[in-house]
Amino acid sequence: MKELKEKLKGALLASRAICDEVDKAGRDFTPEEREKVAGHLDEAGKLKEQIKQKDADTNLRATVAALGAGIDLSDGRQDNGDTGVPPAVKGTMGQRFVESPAIKAWMASFPNGEIPASVKGVQSPVVAFRNFFARKELIVGDSDTSAGAFVETDYTRIYEALGRMPLVLRNLIATRQTTSDLVEFVRQTVQVTQAAAVPEANVTDYEGATGEVSGEKPEGTSNWEKVQAAVKTIAVWIPATKRALSDASQLRGLIDQELTDDLNEELEDQIVNGDGIGENFTGVLNTAGILAQAWNTDIITTTRQALTTLRTTGRARPTAWLLNPTDMETLDLLQDADGRYYWGGPMREGPRTLWGIPIVESETQTAGTSILGDWKKAVLWDRERATLSVSDSHNDFFIRNMVAILAELRAAFGLIRPSAFIEVEMESGS
After folding, report:
1. Which end of the chain lies in a sparser environment, N or C, as judged by fewer CB atoms within 10 Å?
2. What's the pLDDT band for 173 if we cut at 50, 70, 90?
Protein backbone atom coordinates (compact mmCIF):
# COMPACT_ATOMS: atom_id res chain seq x y z
CA MET A 1 0.00 0.00 0.00
CA LYS A 2 2.83 2.38 0.87
CA GLU A 3 4.54 1.70 -2.43
CA LEU A 4 1.31 2.39 -4.38
CA LYS A 5 0.79 5.70 -2.58
CA GLU A 6 4.37 6.77 -3.31
CA LYS A 7 3.92 5.98 -7.01
CA LEU A 8 0.62 7.92 -7.04
CA LYS A 9 2.30 10.90 -5.44
CA GLY A 10 5.10 10.78 -8.01
CA ALA A 11 2.70 10.71 -10.97
CA LEU A 12 0.70 13.67 -9.65
CA LEU A 13 3.82 15.71 -8.90
CA ALA A 14 5.13 15.07 -12.42
CA SER A 15 1.82 16.28 -13.92
CA ARG A 16 1.78 19.37 -11.73
CA ALA A 17 5.36 20.24 -12.65
CA ILE A 18 4.45 20.37 -16.35
CA CYS A 19 1.31 22.44 -15.62
CA ASP A 20 3.32 24.88 -13.48
CA GLU A 21 5.89 25.30 -16.25
CA VAL A 22 3.16 26.06 -18.83
CA ASP A 23 1.37 28.50 -16.48
CA LYS A 24 4.64 30.27 -15.67
CA ALA A 25 5.38 30.73 -19.37
CA GLY A 26 1.82 31.95 -20.04
CA ARG A 27 1.34 29.69 -23.03
CA ASP A 28 -0.63 26.64 -24.23
CA PHE A 29 0.51 23.07 -23.80
CA THR A 30 2.63 21.62 -26.59
CA PRO A 31 1.44 18.28 -28.07
CA GLU A 32 4.32 16.53 -26.26
CA GLU A 33 3.36 18.14 -22.92
CA ARG A 34 -0.29 17.16 -23.38
CA GLU A 35 0.76 13.57 -24.07
CA LYS A 36 3.03 13.46 -20.99
CA VAL A 37 0.37 14.91 -18.67
CA ALA A 38 -2.25 12.51 -20.04
CA GLY A 39 0.15 9.61 -19.43
CA HIS A 40 0.84 10.67 -15.83
CA LEU A 41 -2.88 11.10 -15.15
CA ASP A 42 -3.64 7.71 -16.66
CA GLU A 43 -1.03 6.12 -14.39
CA ALA A 44 -2.41 8.03 -11.37
CA GLY A 45 -5.92 6.82 -12.13
CA LYS A 46 -4.82 3.20 -12.25
CA LEU A 47 -2.85 3.52 -9.00
CA LYS A 48 -5.84 5.16 -7.32
CA GLU A 49 -8.04 2.22 -8.34
CA GLN A 50 -5.51 -0.25 -6.92
CA ILE A 51 -5.39 1.60 -3.61
CA LYS A 52 -9.17 1.74 -3.51
CA GLN A 53 -9.38 -2.00 -4.21
CA LYS A 54 -6.94 -2.86 -1.44
CA ASP A 55 -8.93 -0.76 1.03
CA ALA A 56 -12.12 -2.49 -0.08
CA ASP A 57 -10.54 -5.95 0.35
CA THR A 58 -9.40 -5.11 3.88
CA ASN A 59 -12.81 -3.82 4.90
CA LEU A 60 -14.50 -6.85 3.33
CA ARG A 61 -12.41 -9.27 5.34
CA ALA A 62 -13.10 -7.36 8.54
CA THR A 63 -16.85 -7.34 7.85
CA VAL A 64 -16.96 -11.10 7.22
CA ALA A 65 -15.08 -11.77 10.42
CA ALA A 66 -17.22 -9.42 12.51
CA LEU A 67 -20.54 -10.82 11.27
CA GLY A 68 -19.51 -14.43 12.02
CA ALA A 69 -18.21 -13.79 15.53
CA GLY A 70 -19.87 -16.03 18.15
CA ILE A 71 -22.16 -17.80 15.67
CA ASP A 72 -22.24 -21.56 14.97
CA LEU A 73 -22.40 -21.68 11.23
CA SER A 74 -22.11 -25.46 10.73
CA ASP A 75 -24.87 -27.16 8.69
CA GLY A 76 -24.01 -30.84 9.01
CA ARG A 77 -22.00 -31.17 5.78
CA GLN A 78 -18.47 -32.57 5.65
CA ASP A 79 -15.71 -30.41 4.18
CA ASN A 80 -13.57 -31.99 1.48
CA GLY A 81 -11.08 -29.18 1.07
CA ASP A 82 -7.85 -28.55 2.89
CA THR A 83 -8.81 -25.21 4.44
CA GLY A 84 -7.33 -25.39 7.92
CA VAL A 85 -10.92 -25.62 9.22
CA PRO A 86 -11.69 -28.63 11.52
CA PRO A 87 -13.78 -31.43 9.92
CA ALA A 88 -16.72 -30.58 12.15
CA VAL A 89 -17.00 -27.13 10.56
CA LYS A 90 -19.34 -27.30 7.59
CA GLY A 91 -21.07 -24.90 5.25
CA THR A 92 -20.18 -22.35 2.63
CA MET A 93 -16.81 -20.69 2.12
CA GLY A 94 -17.89 -17.75 4.29
CA GLN A 95 -18.91 -20.08 7.12
CA ARG A 96 -15.68 -22.02 6.92
CA PHE A 97 -13.72 -18.77 6.90
CA VAL A 98 -15.14 -17.42 10.16
CA GLU A 99 -14.87 -20.82 11.85
CA SER A 100 -11.25 -21.43 10.92
CA PRO A 101 -8.77 -21.58 13.86
CA ALA A 102 -6.71 -18.74 12.44
CA ILE A 103 -9.70 -16.36 12.26
CA LYS A 104 -10.99 -17.37 15.68
CA ALA A 105 -7.58 -16.70 17.23
CA TRP A 106 -7.42 -13.35 15.46
CA MET A 107 -10.89 -12.32 16.64
CA ALA A 108 -10.01 -13.31 20.19
CA SER A 109 -7.37 -10.60 20.21
CA PHE A 110 -10.14 -7.94 20.16
CA PRO A 111 -12.15 -6.98 23.30
CA ASN A 112 -15.19 -9.25 23.64
CA GLY A 113 -14.26 -10.91 20.34
CA GLU A 114 -15.59 -7.97 18.29
CA ILE A 115 -13.75 -5.44 16.13
CA PRO A 116 -14.32 -1.90 17.49
CA ALA A 117 -15.73 0.59 15.00
CA SER A 118 -12.81 2.93 15.68
CA VAL A 119 -10.24 0.46 14.36
CA LYS A 120 -9.03 1.32 10.84
CA GLY A 121 -6.99 -0.68 8.34
CA VAL A 122 -7.50 -4.10 9.93
CA GLN A 123 -5.93 -7.11 8.21
CA SER A 124 -7.03 -10.69 8.90
CA PRO A 125 -4.86 -13.82 8.59
CA VAL A 126 -4.94 -15.57 5.21
CA VAL A 127 -7.14 -18.70 5.04
CA ALA A 128 -6.43 -21.03 2.10
CA PHE A 129 -9.21 -22.91 0.22
CA ARG A 130 -7.32 -25.31 -2.03
CA ASN A 131 -10.25 -27.36 -3.33
CA PHE A 132 -12.82 -24.61 -3.46
CA PHE A 133 -14.20 -25.59 -6.86
CA ALA A 134 -14.60 -29.23 -5.79
CA ARG A 135 -17.63 -28.21 -3.72
CA LYS A 136 -21.09 -28.17 -5.22
CA GLU A 137 -21.81 -24.55 -4.29
CA LEU A 138 -21.21 -22.10 -7.15
CA ILE A 139 -20.68 -18.37 -7.03
CA VAL A 140 -22.82 -16.85 -9.73
CA GLY A 141 -23.60 -13.32 -10.84
CA ASP A 142 -26.94 -11.66 -11.39
CA SER A 143 -26.97 -12.23 -15.14
CA ASP A 144 -25.49 -14.38 -17.91
CA THR A 145 -22.89 -11.71 -18.70
CA SER A 146 -21.85 -10.69 -15.19
CA ALA A 147 -19.91 -12.28 -12.37
CA GLY A 148 -21.80 -10.27 -9.82
CA ALA A 149 -21.49 -7.02 -7.97
CA PHE A 150 -17.80 -7.48 -7.22
CA VAL A 151 -16.72 -7.34 -10.86
CA GLU A 152 -15.84 -3.79 -11.86
CA THR A 153 -15.75 -2.35 -15.37
CA ASP A 154 -12.26 -2.15 -16.82
CA TYR A 155 -11.94 1.48 -17.92
CA THR A 156 -9.09 1.51 -20.43
CA ARG A 157 -9.01 5.29 -20.89
CA ILE A 158 -8.55 4.60 -24.61
CA TYR A 159 -10.43 6.87 -26.99
CA GLU A 160 -10.55 6.96 -30.76
CA ALA A 161 -11.55 10.22 -32.42
CA LEU A 162 -13.12 10.36 -35.87
CA GLY A 163 -10.58 10.79 -38.64
CA ARG A 164 -9.75 14.11 -40.28
CA MET A 165 -8.29 14.84 -43.68
CA PRO A 166 -4.51 15.41 -43.86
CA LEU A 167 -3.53 19.08 -44.00
CA VAL A 168 -0.95 19.82 -46.70
CA LEU A 169 -1.16 23.42 -47.92
CA ARG A 170 0.71 25.08 -45.06
CA ASN A 171 3.78 23.13 -46.20
CA LEU A 172 3.40 24.35 -49.80
CA ILE A 173 2.60 28.05 -49.53
CA ALA A 174 4.66 30.94 -48.18
CA THR A 175 3.77 32.06 -44.64
CA ARG A 176 4.52 35.50 -43.28
CA GLN A 177 3.53 37.58 -40.27
CA THR A 178 1.51 40.80 -40.09
CA THR A 179 0.57 43.16 -37.28
CA SER A 180 -2.10 44.96 -39.27
CA ASP A 181 -5.70 44.19 -40.22
CA LEU A 182 -4.99 44.96 -43.89
CA VAL A 183 -2.16 43.60 -46.03
CA GLU A 184 -1.14 45.45 -49.19
CA PHE A 185 1.17 44.32 -51.99
CA VAL A 186 1.94 45.31 -55.58
CA ARG A 187 1.26 42.89 -58.43
CA GLN A 188 2.45 43.24 -62.03
CA THR A 189 -0.27 43.13 -64.69
CA VAL A 190 1.76 43.98 -67.83
CA GLN A 191 5.43 43.18 -68.21
CA VAL A 192 7.98 44.81 -70.48
CA THR A 193 8.11 43.09 -73.90
CA GLN A 194 9.40 45.88 -76.20
CA ALA A 195 13.10 45.08 -76.22
CA ALA A 196 14.62 44.96 -79.74
CA ALA A 197 17.95 45.10 -81.51
CA VAL A 198 18.91 48.69 -82.35
CA PRO A 199 21.39 49.82 -85.06
CA GLU A 200 23.86 52.61 -84.42
CA ALA A 201 22.76 56.17 -85.32
CA ASN A 202 24.41 57.74 -88.42
CA VAL A 203 23.00 61.29 -88.23
CA THR A 204 22.86 63.97 -85.61
CA ASP A 205 19.38 65.21 -86.45
CA TYR A 206 17.17 62.41 -87.64
CA GLU A 207 14.56 63.58 -90.18
CA GLY A 208 13.55 60.27 -91.74
CA ALA A 209 15.39 60.68 -94.97
CA THR A 210 16.50 57.65 -96.95
CA GLY A 211 19.58 56.07 -95.43
CA GLU A 212 19.24 57.90 -92.10
CA VAL A 213 19.38 55.75 -88.96
CA SER A 214 18.12 57.35 -85.76
CA GLY A 215 19.47 54.72 -83.38
CA GLU A 216 16.49 55.38 -81.09
CA LYS A 217 15.88 52.75 -78.43
CA PRO A 218 12.35 51.37 -77.94
CA GLU A 219 10.43 52.43 -74.86
CA GLY A 220 9.14 49.65 -72.65
CA THR A 221 5.72 49.45 -71.01
CA SER A 222 4.89 47.86 -67.66
CA ASN A 223 1.76 48.13 -65.55
CA TRP A 224 1.28 47.34 -61.87
CA GLU A 225 -1.68 47.15 -59.54
CA LYS A 226 -2.00 47.60 -55.80
CA VAL A 227 -3.76 44.70 -54.12
CA GLN A 228 -5.20 44.63 -50.61
CA ALA A 229 -6.03 41.51 -48.62
CA ALA A 230 -8.03 41.98 -45.43
CA VAL A 231 -7.34 39.91 -42.34
CA LYS A 232 -10.22 37.48 -41.76
CA THR A 233 -11.27 35.62 -38.63
CA ILE A 234 -11.98 31.88 -38.54
CA ALA A 235 -13.55 30.66 -35.29
CA VAL A 236 -15.48 27.84 -33.64
CA TRP A 237 -16.64 27.20 -30.06
CA ILE A 238 -18.17 24.42 -28.02
CA PRO A 239 -20.08 24.43 -24.70
CA ALA A 240 -19.01 22.28 -21.74
CA THR A 241 -19.86 22.01 -18.05
CA LYS A 242 -17.27 22.89 -15.44
CA ARG A 243 -17.91 19.56 -13.75
CA ALA A 244 -17.14 17.65 -16.94
CA LEU A 245 -13.85 19.48 -17.36
CA SER A 246 -12.94 18.85 -13.71
CA ASP A 247 -13.96 15.19 -13.57
CA ALA A 248 -12.51 14.09 -16.90
CA SER A 249 -8.86 15.15 -16.91
CA GLN A 250 -8.36 14.41 -20.60
CA LEU A 251 -11.53 16.12 -21.81
CA ARG A 252 -10.15 19.67 -22.03
CA GLY A 253 -7.17 18.52 -24.07
CA LEU A 254 -9.39 16.57 -26.46
CA ILE A 255 -11.71 19.54 -26.94
CA ASP A 256 -8.78 21.89 -27.57
CA GLN A 257 -7.33 19.55 -30.20
CA GLU A 258 -10.70 19.07 -31.92
CA LEU A 259 -11.31 22.81 -32.16
CA THR A 260 -7.79 23.52 -33.44
CA ASP A 261 -8.06 20.79 -36.08
CA ASP A 262 -11.41 22.18 -37.24
CA LEU A 263 -9.90 25.67 -37.63
CA ASN A 264 -7.03 24.34 -39.74
CA GLU A 265 -9.37 22.35 -41.99
CA GLU A 266 -11.49 25.45 -42.65
CA LEU A 267 -8.35 27.51 -43.29
CA GLU A 268 -7.15 25.03 -45.91
CA ASP A 269 -10.55 25.04 -47.62
CA GLN A 270 -10.57 28.85 -47.68
CA ILE A 271 -7.12 28.94 -49.29
CA VAL A 272 -8.35 26.81 -52.20
CA ASN A 273 -12.07 27.59 -52.50
CA GLY A 274 -12.72 30.89 -50.71
CA ASP A 275 -15.07 33.03 -52.84
CA GLY A 276 -14.02 36.42 -51.44
CA ILE A 277 -17.59 37.23 -50.35
CA GLY A 278 -18.10 38.60 -46.86
CA GLU A 279 -15.54 37.17 -44.47
CA ASN A 280 -14.25 34.53 -46.87
CA PHE A 281 -10.74 34.56 -48.31
CA THR A 282 -10.31 34.95 -52.04
CA GLY A 283 -8.95 31.46 -52.65
CA VAL A 284 -6.75 30.24 -55.48
CA LEU A 285 -9.63 29.08 -57.68
CA ASN A 286 -11.48 32.40 -57.38
CA THR A 287 -8.53 34.74 -57.95
CA ALA A 288 -8.68 36.67 -61.22
CA GLY A 289 -5.79 35.96 -63.55
CA ILE A 290 -5.12 32.28 -62.92
CA LEU A 291 -4.78 30.20 -66.06
CA ALA A 292 -7.07 27.38 -67.25
CA GLN A 293 -6.46 24.14 -69.11
CA ALA A 294 -9.45 22.48 -70.80
CA TRP A 295 -9.82 18.73 -71.18
CA ASN A 296 -8.15 17.35 -74.30
CA THR A 297 -8.36 13.68 -75.35
CA ASP A 298 -7.23 12.06 -72.08
CA ILE A 299 -5.79 12.84 -68.67
CA ILE A 300 -2.20 12.33 -69.78
CA THR A 301 -2.47 14.71 -72.71
CA THR A 302 -4.38 17.31 -70.72
CA THR A 303 -1.95 17.43 -67.79
CA ARG A 304 1.07 17.66 -70.08
CA GLN A 305 -0.48 20.57 -71.98
CA ALA A 306 -1.22 22.29 -68.68
CA LEU A 307 2.47 22.07 -67.78
CA THR A 308 3.42 23.64 -71.11
CA THR A 309 0.84 26.44 -70.72
CA LEU A 310 2.03 27.29 -67.23
CA ARG A 311 5.64 27.48 -68.33
CA THR A 312 5.09 29.42 -71.58
CA THR A 313 2.16 31.65 -70.70
CA GLY A 314 2.48 31.91 -66.94
CA ARG A 315 6.28 31.90 -67.02
CA ALA A 316 6.22 29.83 -63.83
CA ARG A 317 8.12 26.82 -62.57
CA PRO A 318 5.51 24.70 -60.77
CA THR A 319 6.29 23.17 -57.38
CA ALA A 320 3.32 20.79 -56.96
CA TRP A 321 0.05 19.42 -58.30
CA LEU A 322 -2.95 19.60 -55.96
CA LEU A 323 -5.28 16.65 -56.65
CA ASN A 324 -8.40 15.24 -55.05
CA PRO A 325 -7.82 11.63 -53.83
CA THR A 326 -10.37 10.41 -56.41
CA ASP A 327 -8.35 11.84 -59.29
CA MET A 328 -5.18 10.48 -57.71
CA GLU A 329 -6.76 7.04 -57.82
CA THR A 330 -7.62 7.50 -61.50
CA LEU A 331 -3.99 8.30 -62.27
CA ASP A 332 -2.66 5.37 -60.25
CA LEU A 333 -4.91 2.93 -62.12
CA LEU A 334 -4.03 4.08 -65.65
CA GLN A 335 -2.66 1.22 -67.78
CA ASP A 336 -1.21 0.88 -71.25
CA ALA A 337 -2.48 -1.49 -73.97
CA ASP A 338 -0.59 -4.39 -72.35
CA GLY A 339 -2.14 -3.83 -68.92
CA ARG A 340 0.95 -2.25 -67.39
CA TYR A 341 0.48 0.60 -64.93
CA TYR A 342 1.89 3.89 -66.18
CA TRP A 343 2.91 4.91 -62.68
CA GLY A 344 4.38 1.61 -61.53
CA GLY A 345 1.37 -0.07 -59.94
CA PRO A 346 0.69 -0.95 -56.31
CA MET A 347 4.27 -1.96 -55.45
CA ARG A 348 5.88 1.30 -56.54
CA GLU A 349 7.87 2.99 -53.80
CA GLY A 350 8.75 6.61 -53.14
CA PRO A 351 6.93 9.91 -53.67
CA ARG A 352 4.50 10.19 -56.56
CA THR A 353 4.96 12.69 -59.37
CA LEU A 354 3.11 13.70 -62.53
CA TRP A 355 5.38 14.79 -65.38
CA GLY A 356 8.17 15.16 -62.83
CA ILE A 357 6.18 17.49 -60.54
CA PRO A 358 5.32 16.26 -56.99
CA ILE A 359 1.66 15.40 -56.32
CA VAL A 360 -0.13 16.48 -53.15
CA GLU A 361 -3.55 15.05 -52.29
CA SER A 362 -6.22 17.14 -50.58
CA GLU A 363 -9.97 16.78 -50.17
CA THR A 364 -10.26 20.57 -50.38
CA GLN A 365 -9.63 20.27 -54.12
CA THR A 366 -12.85 19.33 -55.92
CA ALA A 367 -12.75 16.02 -57.78
CA GLY A 368 -12.57 16.45 -61.57
CA THR A 369 -10.16 19.38 -61.49
CA SER A 370 -6.66 19.96 -60.20
CA ILE A 371 -4.33 22.89 -59.60
CA LEU A 372 -0.78 23.06 -60.90
CA GLY A 373 1.27 25.97 -59.67
CA ASP A 374 4.24 27.60 -58.05
CA TRP A 375 2.79 27.50 -54.54
CA LYS A 376 5.37 29.92 -53.14
CA LYS A 377 3.45 32.62 -55.05
CA ALA A 378 0.55 32.02 -52.61
CA VAL A 379 1.05 33.81 -49.29
CA LEU A 380 -0.70 33.42 -45.94
CA TRP A 381 -0.18 36.33 -43.56
CA ASP A 382 -0.62 35.22 -39.94
CA ARG A 383 -2.18 37.99 -37.83
CA GLU A 384 -3.00 35.77 -34.87
CA ARG A 385 -2.26 32.06 -34.77
CA ALA A 386 -4.87 29.66 -33.40
CA THR A 387 -5.75 30.59 -29.82
CA LEU A 388 -8.04 28.97 -27.25
CA SER A 389 -9.98 30.75 -24.52
CA VAL A 390 -12.59 29.73 -21.94
CA SER A 391 -15.35 31.93 -20.53
CA ASP A 392 -18.61 31.57 -18.59
CA SER A 393 -19.91 34.98 -19.73
CA HIS A 394 -21.92 33.58 -22.64
CA ASN A 395 -25.68 33.84 -22.14
CA ASP A 396 -26.61 32.29 -18.73
CA PHE A 397 -23.57 29.99 -18.56
CA PHE A 398 -22.38 31.57 -15.29
CA ILE A 399 -25.41 30.46 -13.27
CA ARG A 400 -25.45 27.03 -14.95
CA ASN A 401 -21.79 26.22 -14.24
CA MET A 402 -21.05 26.04 -17.96
CA VAL A 403 -18.25 27.48 -20.04
CA ALA A 404 -17.69 28.22 -23.71
CA ILE A 405 -14.37 27.02 -25.14
CA LEU A 406 -13.50 29.22 -28.12
CA ALA A 407 -10.86 28.67 -30.78
CA GLU A 408 -10.03 31.30 -33.40
CA LEU A 409 -7.33 32.48 -35.75
CA ARG A 410 -6.88 35.59 -37.87
CA ALA A 411 -5.07 35.66 -41.20
CA ALA A 412 -5.01 37.14 -44.69
CA PHE A 413 -4.37 35.32 -47.96
CA GLY A 414 -3.49 36.30 -51.51
CA LEU A 415 -1.73 35.28 -54.72
CA ILE A 416 1.15 37.59 -55.50
CA ARG A 417 1.25 36.17 -59.05
CA PRO A 418 -2.02 34.56 -60.21
CA SER A 419 -0.54 33.48 -63.56
CA ALA A 420 1.72 31.08 -61.66
CA PHE A 421 -1.35 28.81 -61.17
CA ILE A 422 -3.45 26.88 -63.65
CA GLU A 423 -6.73 25.04 -63.05
CA VAL A 424 -6.74 21.77 -64.97
CA GLU A 425 -9.74 19.68 -66.01
CA MET A 426 -9.08 16.06 -65.02
CA GLU A 427 -12.09 14.59 -66.83
CA SER A 428 -14.25 15.35 -69.84
CA GLY A 429 -16.95 17.95 -69.17
CA SER A 430 -15.57 19.01 -65.78
Report:
1. N
2. very high
Domain boundary among 193, 227, 261: 227
Q: Which residues span the domain enclosing 43?
A: 2-134
Q: Residue 375 above 90 pLDDT?
A: yes
- Considering the entire predicted model, what is its pTM? 0.61
Q: Looking at the structure, do residues 6 and 112 belong to the same domain, yes or no?
A: yes
Backbone angle region of 347, left / alpha / beta, with phi > 0 → left and psi within -120 to 50 → alpha: alpha
Q: For residue 160, is it within any domain?
A: no
DSSP state letter for 181? S
Which of 75, 102, 134 terminates a domain? The answer is 134
Q: Indicate the helix (H) or strand (E) that contains 361.
A: strand 357-361
Mean pLDDT of the chain: 82
Structural domain count, the chain:
3
pLDDT at position 93 over 50: yes
163 in a structural domain? no
∠ at Cα 244 (238, 246), nearest 5°? 115
